[in-house]
């Protein structure tokens, strides 16, 4: 048994020698590579925080001293050191979550994988300790340089720095900035440039080394004097790099230190702990540290690879054509014919497929950092000046910019197109990553138009249609992963495509977006049972085309299926539309349960939600049978 398997509790770390701790770090890295090679996972970020996490658990007393992780994708090491060793089913149903999980451990606090929230949690926790008089507890917040580009982080810093810095009201809070210079790609913006300036000024480091070496040789006087010279060190830094930003805010700043030198990190964290107030420790790390294929991966240093060959880092299995690839090609074509089209990403140029556009049109692609709110409103500004911006984000992250979409875009009738990748069930990334909200929350935005393509051809067509709307925000949403074969239409009625029809008009089945093929398969099963089904794809689900009202009138039952939560989804909007039109045909809407859906494969979650052709056919045939057996003079609810 190795050292790692002997660590049942973080306190076990304190008995290890320096050499043992080095060996432990190596074991952890081996396990990270093996785990992510077979499961996929956030390899790069976790390789970069091995020493930081070991040091934090040696200096602080988790869970009494809460350790919160921003975004949480870099918490695998924390899990290994808090007694969780079975990573064999990471991010799979029944296995460990890919993020902190309070159900898994008392050492976990923040489960939400949306970035830039950790400092706000930490500020609240620290205030709670102060209010309760628990002054011996310290909150520790890990935040990456990327997450620091999110606005919430600065709202928190403003409050943390504004708290009492001395006296009994002080709130012990240690902010560990894990500065590896990258989100996926290199972190952008003035803050990143500032941090980078500090990281890369050799004069600062050399001078500091001389001071440290000289003082270190005089045991009695050296270290205390070195501490006393901290002001000199700060002065040095100010002289070499304007690092006063955090201190000008009122935050004590320690660093920058080598985040892979565990002893140095422990020393800095111990110093920070002693301060008993808010302190920022700036740690320089490398994403992917200790695994060459990750370090050499220029794109994103193996930020979240799918399964790969551990010997080379090369992806396992053949590449498949994904929805993202279709969008990526389509926006480049649009860019060629539409000089007004520009692209905006929130630190996810690669994952959202915008890299080819950025290469083709470097002056028309903008990375704003992890700042979806700013992305939306700056896009409204671009539209006001005659451009047509395309803001590409993962669906779940658009939640963060709801007010900006509502007030800064829709109220101003701004022709901004939002492309929502990873819409619907994403699966293995857990509850805060499923894009199961957009079809609900965007329904309330006056004037906004929302498209849900069923296949690659429709994605290209509907995206092009969206670019032609310049007096309202438009949205095109599609799921994660491989895009299936195109689902042909028999005819188009208004904006609605008819995908299947039958002699008997028993059921109108409205299949939203990527559920199109499921709708067609369901109809085939029902046809075999003598139930006549018309399958339609609305294509634009906001506003819904009035032709759906006419179609509903012609059938005995309306069934909707969508890859979104049921509450406020397309099914409920269609039911309202039919009620408003005085159509009394019964409606049964199928979607995801309105709860937080734990990590599992996409297909497993869809099956659990009953969103399979087999289950839908069984349910619908039961409903039709109920209609057949009901007395004809009574309206039937289904
Ligand atoms: C609101 C939000 N937008 C986008 C993302 C996607 N995302 C996950 S990790 C990441 C980069 C984080 O960079 P950093 O904070 O520096 O951590 P690192 O991966 O470098 O350790 C991004 C953009 C997210 N999780 N949350
Ligand atoms: C933590 C985070 O938000 C991203 O890293 C996300 O997990 C990546 O998801 P995909 O793997 O679907 O691109
Ligand atoms: Mg980073």
Automatic annotation (TrEMBL):
Entry keyword annotation includes Transferase: yes
Pathways per UniProt: Metabolic intermediate biosynthesis; 1-deoxy-D-xylulose 5-phosphate biosynthesis; 1-deoxy-D-xylulose 5-phosphate from D-glyceraldehyde 3-phosphate and pyruvate: step 1/1
Enzyme nomenclature, EC number: 2.2.1.7
One GO-annotated biological process of the protein: thiamine biosynthetic process
Cofactor: thiamine diphosphate; Mg(2+)
Cellular component annotations (GO), alphabetically ordered: cytosol
Binding-site list for Mg(2+): 145, 180
Reactions this protein catalyses: D-glyceraldehyde 3-phosphate + pyruvate + H(+) = 1-deoxy-D-xylulose 5-phosphate + CO2
Residues where thiamine diphosphate binds: 73, 113-115, 146-147, 180, 291, 372
Keywords: Isoprene biosynthesis, Magnesium, Metal-binding, Thiamine biosynthesis, Thiamine pyrophosphate, Transferase
Every Transketolase-like pyrimidine-binding domain range: 321-485
The family this protein is said to belong to: Belongs to the transketolase family. DXPS subfamily.
Subunit structure: Homodimer.
Function: Catalyzes the acyloin condensation reaction between C atoms 2 and 3 of pyruvate and glyceraldehyde 3-phosphate to yield 1-deoxy-D-xylulose-5-phosphate (DXP).
Protein name from the UniProt record: 1-deoxy-D-xylulose-5-phosphate synthase
Annotated source species: Jiangella ureilytica
Taxonomic lineage of the native organism: Bacteria, Bacillati, Actinomycetota, Actinomycetes, Jiangellales
Gene that encodes it: dxs
